[in-house]
Amino acid sequence: MSVRPGRRSGSEPAFWPWSAKLAVLLVPVVLLILLVAMAITRTVANWPSQRLEGWVLLTILALSLLPVILLLVQTLVTRGGTIRVAGLSLSFAQVSEEVASAVRTTTLAENLGTTEDVPVTQTSLRSILRALRRARDSEVTVVDLRQGRTWWETRLFILIAGATRRDRPTAIAFIGDRNGKPGAYLGWAPPSRLLDMHVYAVPALGEAYDRALSKAMQWQIGTPGPRQEGQPPTNVTLPWNNQQISLPTMTDESSNPVFALELYLQQELDLSPQQQDPNRRPEDLRQHVTIQRLLELYEPVLMTDCVDVDAGDAAWARLLASNPRRYFALTSADKFKALVPRDSLMAALVARMVEAEVKSPSRHSSSHDESHTTT
Protein backbone atom coordinates (compact mmCIF):
# COMPACT_ATOMS: atom_id res chain seq x y z
CA MET A 1 0.00 0.00 0.00
CA SER A 2 1.20 3.49 -0.76
CA VAL A 3 -0.07 6.92 0.05
CA ARG A 4 0.56 9.51 -2.60
CA PRO A 5 0.02 12.93 -1.05
CA GLY A 6 -0.38 16.09 -2.99
CA ARG A 7 1.18 19.38 -2.06
CA ARG A 8 0.71 20.47 1.50
CA SER A 9 0.81 23.94 2.90
CA GLY A 10 2.64 24.55 6.13
CA SER A 11 -0.59 25.36 7.94
CA GLU A 12 -2.21 21.98 7.29
CA PRO A 13 -2.35 19.72 10.38
CA ALA A 14 -0.36 16.50 10.42
CA PHE A 15 -2.89 13.95 11.66
CA TRP A 16 -0.56 11.00 10.85
CA PRO A 17 3.00 11.94 9.85
CA TRP A 18 4.28 8.34 9.68
CA SER A 19 3.92 5.62 7.06
CA ALA A 20 0.70 3.88 6.07
CA LYS A 21 2.22 0.46 6.80
CA LEU A 22 2.91 1.51 10.38
CA ALA A 23 -0.71 2.61 10.81
CA VAL A 24 -1.99 -0.77 9.65
CA LEU A 25 0.52 -2.75 11.75
CA LEU A 26 -0.33 -0.75 14.87
CA VAL A 27 -3.99 -1.83 14.83
CA PRO A 28 -3.47 -5.40 16.14
CA VAL A 29 -0.64 -4.25 18.44
CA VAL A 30 -2.72 -1.57 20.15
CA LEU A 31 -5.70 -3.93 20.32
CA LEU A 32 -3.61 -6.63 22.04
CA ILE A 33 -2.09 -4.16 24.53
CA LEU A 34 -5.48 -2.73 25.48
CA LEU A 35 -7.06 -6.18 25.86
CA VAL A 36 -4.19 -7.27 28.15
CA ALA A 37 -4.59 -4.08 30.19
CA MET A 38 -8.31 -4.76 30.50
CA ALA A 39 -7.62 -8.32 31.70
CA ILE A 40 -5.17 -7.02 34.32
CA THR A 41 -7.57 -4.37 35.66
CA ARG A 42 -10.33 -6.97 35.87
CA THR A 43 -8.09 -9.28 37.90
CA VAL A 44 -6.71 -6.58 40.19
CA ALA A 45 -9.62 -4.15 40.56
CA ASN A 46 -12.59 -6.19 39.31
CA TRP A 47 -13.17 -3.63 36.57
CA PRO A 48 -14.91 -3.32 34.20
CA SER A 49 -18.12 -4.81 35.51
CA GLN A 50 -20.22 -7.07 33.32
CA ARG A 51 -22.57 -4.17 32.63
CA LEU A 52 -19.75 -1.97 31.31
CA GLU A 53 -17.78 -4.68 29.52
CA GLY A 54 -19.47 -4.13 26.15
CA TRP A 55 -18.82 -0.39 26.19
CA VAL A 56 -15.19 -0.89 27.23
CA LEU A 57 -14.60 -3.38 24.40
CA LEU A 58 -16.18 -0.97 21.93
CA THR A 59 -13.88 1.81 23.17
CA ILE A 60 -10.85 -0.49 22.86
CA LEU A 61 -11.79 -1.32 19.27
CA ALA A 62 -12.19 2.37 18.42
CA LEU A 63 -8.81 3.23 19.96
CA SER A 64 -7.07 0.41 18.10
CA LEU A 65 -8.44 1.73 14.81
CA LEU A 66 -7.34 5.28 15.60
CA PRO A 67 -4.02 5.11 13.65
CA VAL A 68 -5.84 4.06 10.47
CA ILE A 69 -8.53 6.71 10.99
CA LEU A 70 -5.87 9.38 11.39
CA LEU A 71 -4.12 8.10 8.29
CA LEU A 72 -7.32 8.35 6.26
CA VAL A 73 -8.07 11.84 7.51
CA GLN A 74 -4.47 12.91 6.85
CA THR A 75 -4.71 11.72 3.28
CA LEU A 76 -8.05 13.40 2.72
CA VAL A 77 -6.94 16.80 3.98
CA THR A 78 -3.85 16.67 1.79
CA ARG A 79 -4.75 18.60 -1.32
CA GLY A 80 -5.15 16.26 -4.25
CA GLY A 81 -4.30 13.23 -2.12
CA THR A 82 -5.26 9.68 -3.04
CA ILE A 83 -4.98 6.40 -1.16
CA ARG A 84 -3.68 3.56 -3.28
CA VAL A 85 -4.02 -0.05 -2.24
CA ALA A 86 -2.15 -2.62 -4.34
CA GLY A 87 -2.10 -0.09 -7.15
CA LEU A 88 -5.83 0.70 -6.90
CA SER A 89 -7.22 3.99 -5.61
CA LEU A 90 -9.64 3.66 -2.69
CA SER A 91 -12.93 5.45 -3.31
CA PHE A 92 -14.68 6.35 -0.08
CA ALA A 93 -17.97 6.82 -1.91
CA GLN A 94 -17.69 3.39 -3.55
CA VAL A 95 -16.81 1.63 -0.30
CA SER A 96 -19.66 3.49 1.46
CA GLU A 97 -22.16 2.28 -1.13
CA GLU A 98 -20.90 -1.29 -0.78
CA VAL A 99 -21.20 -1.12 3.01
CA ALA A 100 -24.68 0.43 2.80
CA SER A 101 -25.86 -2.35 0.47
CA ALA A 102 -25.31 -4.84 3.30
CA VAL A 103 -27.61 -2.91 5.66
CA ARG A 104 -31.18 -4.23 5.61
CA THR A 105 -33.25 -1.17 4.79
CA THR A 106 -37.00 -0.72 4.32
CA THR A 107 -38.69 2.35 2.87
CA LEU A 108 -42.24 3.10 4.00
CA ALA A 109 -44.08 5.75 2.03
CA GLU A 110 -47.75 5.03 2.58
CA ASN A 111 -48.85 5.71 6.13
CA LEU A 112 -48.29 2.11 7.26
CA GLY A 113 -50.32 0.97 4.28
CA THR A 114 -53.34 3.17 5.03
CA THR A 115 -54.35 5.23 2.02
CA GLU A 116 -55.66 8.78 2.11
CA ASP A 117 -59.28 8.07 1.17
CA VAL A 118 -60.27 5.39 3.72
CA PRO A 119 -62.05 6.07 7.03
CA VAL A 120 -59.93 6.39 10.17
CA THR A 121 -61.27 3.25 11.80
CA GLN A 122 -60.10 -0.21 12.75
CA THR A 123 -60.93 -1.48 9.26
CA SER A 124 -58.61 1.08 7.69
CA LEU A 125 -55.46 -0.75 8.83
CA ARG A 126 -55.42 -3.17 5.93
CA SER A 127 -51.66 -3.37 5.70
CA ILE A 128 -50.39 -2.28 9.10
CA LEU A 129 -49.01 -5.66 10.11
CA ARG A 130 -47.28 -6.19 6.78
CA ALA A 131 -45.68 -2.76 6.99
CA LEU A 132 -44.66 -3.24 10.61
CA ARG A 133 -43.22 -6.66 9.83
CA ARG A 134 -41.04 -5.13 7.11
CA ALA A 135 -39.82 -2.48 9.56
CA ARG A 136 -39.11 -5.04 12.29
CA ASP A 137 -36.98 -7.15 9.94
CA SER A 138 -34.84 -4.16 8.93
CA GLU A 139 -31.92 -2.38 10.56
CA VAL A 140 -32.91 0.94 9.00
CA THR A 141 -36.41 2.15 8.13
CA VAL A 142 -36.76 5.12 5.79
CA VAL A 143 -39.96 7.15 6.15
CA ASP A 144 -40.82 9.08 2.99
CA LEU A 145 -42.98 12.09 3.84
CA ARG A 146 -43.21 13.08 0.17
CA GLN A 147 -45.16 16.35 -0.03
CA GLY A 148 -46.45 16.17 3.54
CA ARG A 149 -49.76 14.46 2.75
CA THR A 150 -48.62 10.87 3.13
CA TRP A 151 -48.26 10.13 6.85
CA TRP A 152 -50.73 10.73 9.65
CA GLU A 153 -49.04 11.65 12.89
CA THR A 154 -50.77 8.80 14.74
CA ARG A 155 -49.49 6.20 12.26
CA LEU A 156 -45.94 7.53 12.52
CA PHE A 157 -46.25 7.39 16.32
CA ILE A 158 -47.27 3.70 16.10
CA LEU A 159 -44.18 2.90 14.03
CA ILE A 160 -41.85 4.74 16.42
CA ALA A 161 -43.41 3.24 19.55
CA GLY A 162 -43.15 -0.31 18.22
CA ALA A 163 -39.56 0.18 17.08
CA THR A 164 -38.63 1.52 20.51
CA ARG A 165 -40.26 -1.41 22.27
CA ARG A 166 -38.36 -4.09 20.33
CA ASP A 167 -35.24 -2.03 19.44
CA ARG A 168 -35.79 -2.74 15.75
CA PRO A 169 -35.18 -0.97 13.46
CA THR A 170 -32.21 0.70 15.11
CA ALA A 171 -32.53 3.88 13.04
CA ILE A 172 -35.41 5.73 11.39
CA ALA A 173 -34.44 8.10 8.59
CA PHE A 174 -36.72 10.73 7.10
CA ILE A 175 -36.85 11.95 3.53
CA GLY A 176 -39.30 14.17 1.69
CA ASP A 177 -39.92 16.60 -1.14
CA ARG A 178 -37.96 19.80 -0.62
CA ASN A 179 -37.58 22.67 -3.09
CA GLY A 180 -39.30 20.59 -5.74
CA LYS A 181 -36.86 17.69 -5.33
CA PRO A 182 -38.22 14.35 -4.09
CA GLY A 183 -36.29 12.18 -1.67
CA ALA A 184 -34.34 14.97 0.02
CA TYR A 185 -32.55 13.83 3.19
CA LEU A 186 -34.02 15.31 6.39
CA GLY A 187 -32.21 13.41 9.15
CA TRP A 188 -32.21 10.21 11.21
CA ALA A 189 -32.51 9.28 14.89
CA PRO A 190 -32.87 6.21 17.11
CA PRO A 191 -36.57 5.37 17.67
CA SER A 192 -36.28 5.84 21.45
CA ARG A 193 -35.17 9.46 21.03
CA LEU A 194 -38.02 10.11 18.61
CA LEU A 195 -40.53 8.61 21.02
CA ASP A 196 -39.30 10.78 23.89
CA MET A 197 -39.62 13.93 21.80
CA HIS A 198 -43.05 13.00 20.46
CA VAL A 199 -44.48 12.20 23.90
CA TYR A 200 -43.13 15.48 25.24
CA ALA A 201 -44.68 17.44 22.36
CA VAL A 202 -48.05 15.63 22.42
CA PRO A 203 -48.88 14.37 25.95
CA ALA A 204 -52.14 12.77 24.74
CA LEU A 205 -50.13 10.36 22.59
CA GLY A 206 -47.99 9.50 25.60
CA GLU A 207 -51.10 8.68 27.61
CA ALA A 208 -52.39 6.44 24.80
CA TYR A 209 -48.99 4.74 24.66
CA ASP A 210 -49.06 4.05 28.42
CA ARG A 211 -52.54 2.51 28.19
CA ALA A 212 -51.54 0.38 25.21
CA LEU A 213 -48.34 -0.74 26.92
CA SER A 214 -50.33 -1.79 29.99
CA LYS A 215 -52.72 -3.87 27.88
CA ALA A 216 -49.85 -5.45 25.93
CA MET A 217 -48.09 -6.45 29.16
CA GLN A 218 -51.31 -7.98 30.51
CA TRP A 219 -51.61 -9.93 27.27
CA GLN A 220 -48.08 -11.29 27.72
CA ILE A 221 -48.79 -12.38 31.31
CA GLY A 222 -52.09 -14.12 30.48
CA THR A 223 -52.54 -17.81 29.75
CA PRO A 224 -53.09 -18.35 26.00
CA GLY A 225 -56.34 -19.81 24.80
CA PRO A 226 -56.61 -22.72 22.34
CA ARG A 227 -55.12 -22.39 18.89
CA GLN A 228 -57.40 -22.61 15.90
CA GLU A 229 -56.19 -24.10 12.61
CA GLY A 230 -52.57 -23.51 13.54
CA GLN A 231 -53.08 -19.79 14.10
CA PRO A 232 -51.65 -18.10 17.21
CA PRO A 233 -54.21 -17.56 20.02
CA THR A 234 -56.05 -14.24 19.94
CA ASN A 235 -57.20 -14.28 23.58
CA VAL A 236 -55.64 -14.99 26.97
CA THR A 237 -56.90 -15.46 30.52
CA LEU A 238 -55.51 -13.19 33.22
CA PRO A 239 -54.19 -15.13 36.25
CA TRP A 240 -55.54 -12.79 38.96
CA ASN A 241 -59.23 -12.63 38.02
CA ASN A 242 -59.70 -15.22 35.23
CA GLN A 243 -60.80 -12.41 32.92
CA GLN A 244 -60.35 -13.03 29.21
CA ILE A 245 -58.85 -10.31 27.03
CA SER A 246 -58.48 -10.39 23.26
CA LEU A 247 -56.24 -8.72 20.75
CA PRO A 248 -57.88 -6.05 18.61
CA THR A 249 -59.35 -7.75 15.57
CA MET A 250 -58.60 -6.95 11.94
CA THR A 251 -60.84 -7.42 8.93
CA ASP A 252 -58.35 -8.80 6.42
CA GLU A 253 -55.91 -10.94 8.42
CA SER A 254 -55.40 -12.51 11.84
CA SER A 255 -54.08 -10.31 14.61
CA ASN A 256 -50.46 -11.18 15.29
CA PRO A 257 -49.48 -11.34 19.00
CA VAL A 258 -45.97 -10.20 18.06
CA PHE A 259 -47.46 -6.78 17.40
CA ALA A 260 -49.71 -6.65 20.45
CA LEU A 261 -48.41 -3.22 21.49
CA GLU A 262 -48.98 -1.71 18.05
CA LEU A 263 -52.48 -3.21 17.79
CA TYR A 264 -53.54 -1.92 21.21
CA LEU A 265 -51.95 1.45 20.44
CA GLN A 266 -53.80 1.85 17.16
CA GLN A 267 -56.99 0.86 18.99
CA GLU A 268 -56.40 3.64 21.51
CA LEU A 269 -55.58 6.18 18.82
CA ASP A 270 -58.52 5.22 16.61
CA LEU A 271 -61.15 5.73 19.29
CA SER A 272 -63.77 8.26 18.32
CA PRO A 273 -63.03 11.86 19.31
CA GLN A 274 -65.86 11.77 21.84
CA GLN A 275 -64.37 8.73 23.54
CA GLN A 276 -60.92 10.29 23.80
CA ASP A 277 -61.62 13.98 24.24
CA PRO A 278 -64.96 15.81 23.87
CA ASN A 279 -63.09 18.82 22.50
CA ARG A 280 -61.20 16.82 19.89
CA ARG A 281 -62.18 17.35 16.27
CA PRO A 282 -62.46 14.37 13.89
CA GLU A 283 -59.89 15.89 11.51
CA ASP A 284 -57.33 15.88 14.35
CA LEU A 285 -56.96 12.14 13.77
CA ARG A 286 -55.59 12.93 10.34
CA GLN A 287 -52.99 15.54 11.14
CA HIS A 288 -50.35 15.07 8.48
CA VAL A 289 -46.62 15.08 9.09
CA THR A 290 -45.09 17.76 6.90
CA ILE A 291 -41.41 18.66 6.93
CA GLN A 292 -42.27 21.60 9.17
CA ARG A 293 -44.16 19.32 11.58
CA LEU A 294 -41.27 16.83 11.53
CA LEU A 295 -38.86 19.55 12.63
CA GLU A 296 -41.27 20.78 15.30
CA LEU A 297 -41.37 17.29 16.78
CA TYR A 298 -37.84 15.96 16.36
CA GLU A 299 -35.36 18.63 15.26
CA PRO A 300 -33.26 18.56 18.49
CA VAL A 301 -32.50 14.84 18.03
CA LEU A 302 -32.32 14.54 14.23
CA MET A 303 -28.80 13.81 13.01
CA THR A 304 -28.12 15.31 9.62
CA ASP A 305 -24.51 14.16 8.98
CA CYS A 306 -24.26 13.50 5.26
CA VAL A 307 -21.81 13.49 2.38
CA ASP A 308 -22.46 13.51 -1.33
CA VAL A 309 -21.09 10.71 -3.51
CA ASP A 310 -19.35 13.33 -5.63
CA ALA A 311 -17.97 15.28 -2.68
CA GLY A 312 -14.33 16.30 -2.59
CA ASP A 313 -11.66 15.29 -0.11
CA ALA A 314 -12.43 18.14 2.29
CA ALA A 315 -16.04 16.97 2.78
CA TRP A 316 -14.94 13.41 3.58
CA ALA A 317 -12.29 14.74 5.96
CA ARG A 318 -14.85 16.82 7.85
CA LEU A 319 -17.19 13.85 8.07
CA LEU A 320 -14.59 11.41 9.38
CA ALA A 321 -13.05 13.94 11.77
CA SER A 322 -16.38 15.04 13.23
CA ASN A 323 -17.93 13.53 16.34
CA PRO A 324 -18.64 9.91 15.40
CA ARG A 325 -22.27 8.88 15.18
CA ARG A 326 -23.55 5.42 14.40
CA TYR A 327 -24.62 6.34 10.85
CA PHE A 328 -24.14 9.06 8.30
CA ALA A 329 -26.21 9.62 5.17
CA LEU A 330 -24.88 9.12 1.67
CA THR A 331 -26.58 11.47 -0.78
CA SER A 332 -26.48 12.24 -4.47
CA ALA A 333 -27.37 15.78 -5.56
CA ASP A 334 -29.08 16.24 -2.15
CA LYS A 335 -31.17 13.10 -2.72
CA PHE A 336 -30.93 10.40 -0.06
CA LYS A 337 -29.24 7.16 -1.09
CA ALA A 338 -28.55 5.23 2.13
CA LEU A 339 -27.52 5.33 5.77
CA VAL A 340 -23.95 4.10 6.14
CA PRO A 341 -22.66 2.65 9.44
CA ARG A 342 -19.45 4.49 10.30
CA ASP A 343 -17.87 1.50 12.06
CA SER A 344 -18.60 -0.78 9.12
CA LEU A 345 -17.10 1.72 6.69
CA MET A 346 -13.89 1.96 8.72
CA ALA A 347 -13.74 -1.83 9.09
CA ALA A 348 -14.14 -2.28 5.33
CA LEU A 349 -11.38 0.21 4.59
CA VAL A 350 -9.04 -1.43 7.11
CA ALA A 351 -9.82 -4.87 5.69
CA ARG A 352 -8.90 -3.72 2.20
CA MET A 353 -5.67 -2.19 3.45
CA VAL A 354 -4.68 -5.33 5.34
CA GLU A 355 -5.58 -7.52 2.36
CA ALA A 356 -3.46 -5.35 0.10
CA GLU A 357 -0.54 -5.51 2.56
CA VAL A 358 -0.75 -9.31 2.52
CA LYS A 359 -0.75 -9.44 -1.28
CA SER A 360 1.84 -6.77 -1.93
CA PRO A 361 4.95 -8.70 -0.72
CA SER A 362 4.32 -11.50 -3.23
CA ARG A 363 3.76 -8.94 -5.95
CA HIS A 364 7.03 -7.18 -5.11
CA SER A 365 8.79 -10.54 -4.87
CA SER A 366 7.64 -11.59 -8.36
CA SER A 367 8.76 -8.25 -9.76
CA HIS A 368 12.18 -8.73 -8.16
CA ASP A 369 12.46 -12.25 -9.62
CA GLU A 370 11.61 -10.99 -13.07
CA SER A 371 14.21 -8.26 -12.76
CA HIS A 372 16.83 -10.74 -11.57
CA THR A 373 16.06 -13.12 -14.46
CA THR A 374 16.38 -10.32 -16.98
CA THR A 375 19.76 -9.33 -15.68
Explain this structure to me?
The protein is an alpha/beta fold and 375 residues long. It has 2 domains: 114 residues, no CATH class; 197 residues, no CATH class. It is 48% helix and 16% strand. The protein has 13 helices and 13 strands. It has a 4-stranded mixed β-sheet with strand order 4-5-6-7. The longest helix has 33 residues. The radius of gyration is 27 Å and the shape is globular. It starts with a strand and ends with a helix. The N terminus and C terminus are likely disordered.
Low-confidence regions: 1-13, 119-124, 362-375
Largest sheet: 4 strands, mixed
What is the approximate shape?
A: globular
Average the pLDDT over all residues and give the rounded result: 77
How do the helices and strands follow one another from N- to C-terminus? Answer: EHHHEEHEHEHEEHHEEEHHHEHEEH
The percent range for helix content is 40-55%
The total number of structural domains is 2
CA distance, first residue to last residue: 27 Å
Widest β-sheet, arrangement of strands: 4-5-6-7
Number-wise, the strands total 13
Brief overview:
By secondary structure, the protein is an alpha/beta fold.
Please tag this protein with its features.
disordered C terminus; 375 residues; 48% helix; disordered N terminus; single chain; alpha/beta; 13 strands; globular; 3-stranded antiparallel sheet; 4-stranded mixed sheet
